[in-house]
Design goal:
heterodimer; A: alpha/beta; Glutathione S-transferase Yfyf (Class Pi), Chain A, domain 2; Rossmann fold; 2 domains; four-stranded parallel beta sheet; 16 helices; 8% strand; B: mainly alpha; Fumarate Reductase Iron-sulfur Protein, Chain B, domain 2; globular
């Protein structure tokens, strides 16, 4: 195929992402799992790139977890989301950015449903008015936070202090990228690269110097799957999924994993401990695991932020071997020191998975 | 090893690089029609044994294509050779003849 033809096809997979003025909504679970990630996103966008990002303490959950666990009906989720849109409208914004992949999928699903069934939108507007006397305009653009880091990836690369390169060999790091299922598998046209070629994380990795690994189970779910984990009897499904992914990527010897979903980094990180305890198997070098990061954490690392300010001490898999590989400076003694040198206490070390 | 109250199920992933497909290649030479199968499942829907034993020509062909010989041979024992699958195949594959050829090749093995 001629190059222009390829470019034309690729253009269909692109997504319009406005440059500035965003209303930001956080994830329910990310701040507990990876506490530095969202803070770093706002820090980079506001203080490094000087963009306008507004967030309000009045926003709530989008209801996505309960919706995907089948515990609340869609009308309830729609009313919750309508309230979020009302907050955006009151703040005077038109561009809506979600930190969570499931929220992003949820917002898109609701907007698409309202397009197909306008009478439902009218009903939800009525319900919102009855519930809290609010009105809303639908957002002009809905993006996931990773879309924005993707958009700003070259600006970040220009300001970067480190690159995703092994300083001992000079080779690019082998990076596994894992896209959350609700990013583009539900509505392919809403994600960069669609469902077949999601490019959002690949773009970041390539801009920051790494090499993307293509492996057989690349597009497989991380294993979270809501009901697969939240119902304890189903947790075997969850860990089996994750196990399948790790078995598939193992022969390619990845140095790190980057994800853009709240659940994926958590499960790919913590299940490595569970797999090690259950089967005695680890997937990294010398008994370590493969470190798993959110895209904001990686952006923070390449920009030269202190790894402990990014919250990397709360990862199950030790990140130090990777930091050494890239050549990132860190103070091992400060790992469990919180704000104002408060001692965060040391966690118990696992039996099989090697940790620092 | 620690017991968390749940287990890791064995992976269903099939590594085609490691699968032995030599018999399937032989079968393709003997029964070139097998390549016409589009896995529509009409044969399985028409099969009188399907409901009781899970016999399915569609599954049988897929198993052979994936090198899962044991599963395929086990399934063959449930076929009554009634020929209903041949009558409904939209691609006109003589599935009854195909099953006999599979029996010859794989059961010898």
């Amino acid at each position: 195929m001629i190059y222009q033809g390829k470019q034309k096809i690729w253009a269909d997979y692109q997504k319009e992402i406005p440059d500035d003025h965003w209303f930001y909504v956080r994830s329910c679970i990310r701040q507990n799992f990876f506490p530095g990630a969202e803070k770093m996103f706002l820090e980079i966008c506001r203080n490094v790139l000087h963009k306008d990002f507004y967030e309000t303490e009045n926003h709530t959950t989008c209801g996505g977890i309960a919706y995907h666990c089948d515990t609340i009906p869609q009308e309830t989720v729609m009313t919750i989301v309508a309230r979020q849109f009302a907050l955006m409208t009151e703040a005077g914004y038109e561009n809506y950015v979600a930190s969570c992949i499931t929220s992003f999928g949820n917002y898109i699903e609701i907007l698409e449903t309202w397009n197909e069934f306008p009478e439902l939108e009218t009903r939800i507007r009525e319900m919102l008015w009855k519930a809290c006397r609010r009105e809303f305009k639908k957002p002009k653009y809905v993006a996931h936070a990773s879309d924005l880091i993707y958009k700003y990836r070259n600006l970040i690369a220009e300001k970067a202090r480190y690159r995703l390169i092994n300083r001992n060999t000079g080779e690019p790091l082998k990076v596994v990228e894992h896209i959350g299922c609700h990013y583009s598998k539900m509505f392919p046209s809403k994600g960069v690269g669609g469902a077949e070629y999601p490019y959002v994380l690949c773009g970041m990795i390539e801009s920051w110097g790494g090499n993307v690994i293509d492996y057989p189970e690349r597009r497989h779910c991380c294993g979270y799957g809501f009901r697969q984990y939240h119902v304890k009897a189903n947790r075997g499904y969850s860990i089996s999924n994750t196990h399948k992914k790790f078995e598939s990527m193992e022969p390619y010897h990845p140095d790190m994993i980057i994800t853009n979903c709240p659940g994926c980094p958590y499960f790919m990180d913590r299940w490595q401990y569970a797999i090690a305890e259950m089967e005695g198997k680890t997937y990294g070098e010398n008994g370590y695991g493969i470190p798993v990061f959110t895209y904001e954490e990686v952006a923070g690392l390449v920009l030269g932020y202190d790894p402990w300010d990014l919250g990397l001490q709360l990862h199950q898999v030790a990140v130090e071997p990777l930091l050494d590989k890239i050549g990132i400076e860190y103070d091992p003694a400060a790992k469990y020191e919180g704000l104002d040198h408060k001692d965060l206490l040391r966690p118990e070390l696992p039996g099989v998975l090697r940790c620092c | 090893m620690m017991d968390f109250g749940f287990k890791i199920s064995p992976s269903s992933a099939i590594n085609l690089d490691n699968a032995d497909l030599s018999l399937y290649d032989e079968l393709c030479k003997a029964e070139p029609d097998i390549c016409k199968c589009m896995a529509c499942g009409s044969c399985s829907a028409a099969c009188p044994a399907n409901r009781f034993s899970g016999m399915s020509v569609r599954k049988l062909i897929i198993d052979l294509q994936r090198g899962k010989k044991k599963e395929a041979v086990k399934m063959l024992s449930d076929c009554m050779l009634c020929g209903k699958c041949t009558m409904v195949c939209p691609r006109g594959i003589n599935t009854r003849h195909l099953i006999l050829s599979i029996c010859k090749l794989y059961k010898e093995d």
